[in-house]
Structure formats: structure tokens, C-alpha cells
Design brief:
It is a single chain. The chain is of the alpha+beta class and 345 residues long. The chain folds into three domains: 47-132, Alpha-Beta Plaits (2-Layer Sandwich), CATH 3.30.70; 137-228, 2-Layer Sandwich (GMP Synthetase, Chain A, domain 3), CATH 3.30.300.110; 251-344, no CATH class. Helix content is 20%, strand content 22%. The chain is built from eight helices and 15 strands. The protein has helices at 62-71, 112-119, 139-146, 178-188, 247-256, 274-278, 297-302, 326-337, and strands spanning 4-6, 21-23, 26-28, 47-56, 84-86, 94-97, 123-132, 158-162, 165-168, 194-198, 213-217, 223-228, 231-236, 282-286, 340-344. The chain has a five-stranded mixed sheet. A four-stranded antiparallel sheet has the order 5-6-4-7. A two-stranded antiparallel sheet has the order 2-3. Helix 4 (178-188) links the parallel strand 9 and strand 10 (194-198). It is elongated. The two termini are 26 Å apart.
Length: 345
Amino acid sequence: MENRMTMTNSLKRKHQHDEPQEKGTMLRLHAPLARAATTLDRSIFAKTLNLAAATVQDNRNIARLRKQLTKGRELLEWERLNACKPDPVEEGKKCLLLKEGVKADAPSTWGPLLQAAVEAQEVSVIPYELQLDYDYWSYLDVISSILPEDLHGEIPVGFNTAGHIAHLNLRDRYLPYKSIIAQVILDKNPKLRTVINKTDNVGTESEFRTFTYEVLAGPNDMDVEVKENDCTFQFDYSKVYWNSKLETEHSRLIRLFQPGEVVADVMAGIGPFAIPSGRKGLSEGIMPEPDLLILFGPHVELDGYPPWPIRLTEIFCLPDNQEVGYQVFLRALRNFANAQFRKGK
């Protein structure tokens, strides 16, 4: 499913990068500062923390002890961090990371549940050196550590996707950091390979609602494959208007169509309505106007459908159709009104 992706970590927090901030029972650790960096240096985000851990003497007790220490808020709880780690000393054993402030050599810092487990000889408390690197930090952690604080109010956290492409609409004030923003998006979203930024409004330069763009990261590969409503669409994203936010509306309308009904899709584009509707059985308008054939054939043939059900009224951005104007469009509507129809798949 292709949709609008949003990275939703809250920015409404004070940046205290030396100590974590409490968030309910969850502590949030902040990435090292790299203010106003112009290139992405991943090594900056390495961080070492000196903690304590409880080595579990019998691995069969791990789940029970972890549950008890979590309930008692004695376990380390950081976002995206598994508190159960291989023991650094005893091979084959596991240890549970304890919350900050607990010292292995200071029993007075131990919570009551930990003390009870030590007395029962179920665990022993050891020092633990936790190594974090760039891979640990989220997109928002990294970007908020790089951008100046006066740009934190509207950090770009959402983007449209089409296949392997992330499509940004960056505000002017974020353009100096566009390359870093794009690279971090790729790093944190493995299914994406290319990040582009729109450089003008859709429709300003093209009557077919395509747009000019710049590649911010990854290859300039605009041939995408998108899955929607059990159909696969393959197209050049730079030449076809595709809005992933419309998927819900596409699905809603397609559910309303019934087999045998006549549906005039006069602005069909690549076919988010027409192709799924064809699975239900279409009524085809037989029209001689060659300028109104749409570029659906390859996709429909992949699904085992003959080409005739998809000759719908559409002005498509083909080389031969670039001068098609309203006169041709109106003629197409008149042809459609007088068309004969064949029904079925």
C-alpha cells in the first residue's frame, strides 16, 4: 500500500542531551548535537552510556524477572531499545538493563525488586557499557540534532510515497539542509531508494499536473511500481500525476461501481479507478477518436485482461497528444454520449 508517511515523534520537549527526559514510565534519550552540519557525519551519533545490568542466573527466569522489574519501574525503558542483552561476561547468559541511576557497586541505589532478586540469588548486578550508534536514532532524533532550534517548529516529518520514491515539498527555510534531510529519510526507511523535492506547484508549468523536481538523494529513477486496490501500476512518476493520499477515495468510489454499469472516467490518468473497476466488468464506449486512447494496455495485459475494456475517454500526456485542447475534449464527450457499448470483461 502506498500512502503518506509521517514520522510522528513529538518535538514538544526541551533538548537536554546529557540526561534523558521522563515520558510517563518511558525515558527518552536524545541524540548528540550536530548543529548546522552541512553534510551527514554518522559517526557523530555514536554514544556510550555507563549503566548497570542484572545478570539472570537461569535463562528460564528472564521473562518473569523482566516483567517484575518493568512493573516496578526498575528496568531501563528507552524507545527502540531492547532491555534484554547478552551478558558481556558470562557466555550464554542474558542480562537486563537497569534504569539510570542504578550503580552496580552501590546497593543503596537498587530498587526493592532488584534487591529481592539478588538476595534470592536469581540475579547479580554488574556494570554495563551500552554502545549506541547512528542506527539507533530515529529520523526525528537526527534531524532535530542538526537543524538550528529556530527551525524545530515545522521540521519536515511527512512525505508522499510512490513505489521507491519519497516526494517532499520542502519550505524555503529548510532548503539549505535538503540533502541531509533526504539522506536521513533514506537511512531510516529501507524500502525507499530515491528522495525528490518538488520545485514548482503542480499544474503551474504543465496542464497535465506533472511537476518539475530535483533529486535530493538516491538515483534519478522515476519508474515506479505501485500497488493499490489489488492492482499493480507501473509508470514514470515524473510524467504521470499520482497522489498517494487519494487511495481511500479511490477505494470508496470503486466499491460503489457495480458490474454492467457505465462509468465515464474522463480524467483517468494512469487508471486508479479504471483498472480496479475493470475487474468488476466494464461497459466500453466504442469511439474512433485516436487522441483519447490511454496508456493502460501494458498493465491490463499483465492482469490477463484484453485491451478493449480500457478504451475510456481520457486525454493522456503522450507525445502525439500534447496539443490536445478543449475542442478535442468536447468532441470526445459527444462521442461518448453517442457511443455503442459492449458489456463484460
